[in-house]
Amino acid sequence: MNDDRYTKRTIVKEEVRSAFLPEARSVKIYMPPGYNELMSYPVLYCQDGEDFFNFGRTATTITRLILDEGLEPALVVGVDVDKRVRTDEYSPDGSRFEAYCRFFAEELVPYIEERYPARRERAERVIAGDSLGGTVSLHLALEYPELFNRVLSLSGAFLESTRSRLATESDLSWLELYMLIGLQETAVETSSGTFDFLNENRLTRTMLEAKGTKLVYEEKDGKHIWGFWQKELPGALTRFFG
After folding, report:
1. φ, ψ for residue 3, nearest 5 deg
2. Which of 57, 182, 212, 238 has the highest Cβ tally under 10 A?
3. pTM higher than 0.70, yes or no?
4. Which PANTHER family does the record match to this protein (predicted)?
């Protein structure tokens, strides 16, 4: 990963104003090697954008996969979040959850697609998130199925409120979901208490499979940390863009 070809890339920072959120939201847009405005690209949208770029090394990883392993070039949009209100925005029970989802689907995606050569078919959009970022990504697909049907979840916080929402769906055969969970994630401390994420993901998996979801589910040795997710990100990206 020390090859300087992997670290030579273009990342643009934008401020997206919102009618739904009380402030503009910073986003970073990664352009793949050989980026050409006359071409079109699939898009990876990442919750916790700063973390995906800094701790997940997403830009370096996807550049390496494109250059060395033939991954399809894609744009990466990292959406920043203020950690002080992260739970309010990402949790289905949060006070800003509906506003954030509306911002993401109704303002952010159109903003990107008006300014960058992003493909506009839903199969060309992938939403990714870790922990509660995985939660809000799945809920975005459920609330806006015309926009999103591909979700990448790294140790998603799929608790009872998510399963209650899933229970309202009769057919999820349109949904493509990658779920990764660590075998050591049995006592994850959150702002709402301590949860057995491994069991919560297993329960959610059973419900998703019963409703026909196109599901790739992986349990691996790992804790609820970026050190675990970063190692697994290349395989997850290859599933969607390989």
Report:
1. -60, 125
2. 182
3. yes
4. ENTEROCHELIN ESTERASE-RELATED, IRON(III) ENTEROBACTIN ESTERASE
